[in-house]
Amino acid sequence: MSGAGAPQITVDGTGLRITVVAASWHTEVMDGLLAGARRALAAANVMHVKEIRVPGSFELPVAAARAAERGTDAVIALGVVIRGGTPHFEYVCSAATTGLTDVSVRTGVPVGFGVLTCDDEQQALDRAGLPGSREDKGAEAVEAAIATVVALRDL
Ligand code: DLZ
User: Cβ(74)–Cβ(37) under 8 Å?
Assistant: First the structure.
């Protein structure tokens, strides 16, 4: 998937409570995702932000589920999974993706999907929102989640 075609989203998150759940693998890339998420939350005027860390992306869904059940308005899930030489990559990506989708659909709480699933570290760095990165997936996940909270108000 390329980032071509991504929408320009302007969001106002005034008054929202947002929980960021972030995995701990691949520190440099994760630091970029977290910084991008924080920038986007500040730009959207979100004042109530809780951040929690879990070990790996496999653990993101259970943390997202707990946050959703405790009354957050949206969850931002951040993870970095880089393909290795075994099928483990597929299992972790699948568990994170399916699990986070399940949380959002089951609870009605939007989940911003900021989980990078990359063939190598360079692909991840290109998307991390760091100086020199082409894309900022942490910020995109925040903007998508807030835009979804706002869209759901009209239903
Ligand atoms: C085990 C593992 C591996 C090999 N790679 C990654 C990765 O690239 N990114 C990530 O977020 N987590 C990885 N993990 C850890 C799993 O997500 C999980 O934390 C462990 O399997 C323990 O449940």
Answer: no
For ligand 1, say whether the CB of 59 is within 6 Å of any of its atoms: yes
48, 50, 70, 88: the catalytic one is 88
Domain 23-69+89-153 fold is Rossmann fold (3.40.50)
- Dihedral (C-alpha) 147, 108, 127, 116: value to the nearest 10 degrees? -170
Domain ranges in the chain are 23-69+89-153
Closest atom of ligand 1 to CA, residue 55: 19
Q: Say which DSSP state 131 is in.
A: T
Mutate which of 81, 83, 113, 115 to test ligand 1's pocket (most atoms within 8 Å of Cβ)?
Answer: 81
pLDDT single digits (tens) 68-88: 999 999 999 999 999 988 889
Q: Which of 96, 86, 84, 98 is nearest to 21 (CA)?
A: 96
Considering Cα of 49, then 52, then 56, then 59, what sign does the dihedral take? negative
Tens digit of each residue's pLDDT (9 = 90 or more) over 99-141: 999 999 999 999 999 999 999 999 999 999 999 999 999 999 9
